[in-house]
Amino acid sequence: MIIDMDVTRTTVPGTGTLVHFATREGQGLAVLVEREGLRRLLVYGQGDEPSQSIPLERDEADQLARVLQSRSVDDRLATLERRMAVITRTAHARRTAHYAEIAREAS
After folding, report:
1. Has this prediction a pTM greater than 0.85?
2. How many Å from the N-terminal Cα to the C-terminal Cα in the chain?
3. Cα–chain-centroid distance for residue 86?
């Protein structure tokens, strides 16, 4: 995975954490994660001050995050489950071969 976005995190005393993003095109965005759980999506225009602030409740932020993901959590989980199945089969086959070799040597 190649990540080209410029991302910075800043603690805002008494408020929460501000995560700034700059896209490859130079568009500035930020997410303010407030201590109470509210998120604010900040959109920047030409200046240093946000041109728009969009408040998001936790469930709204979660839904937006799911939409923005390149692959869903379900897809990622299915990939991990397939990988674990391969690892488990491989480990079982190696153990079986090892025990068979020990049994041959013992007889």
Report:
1. no
2. 52
3. 24
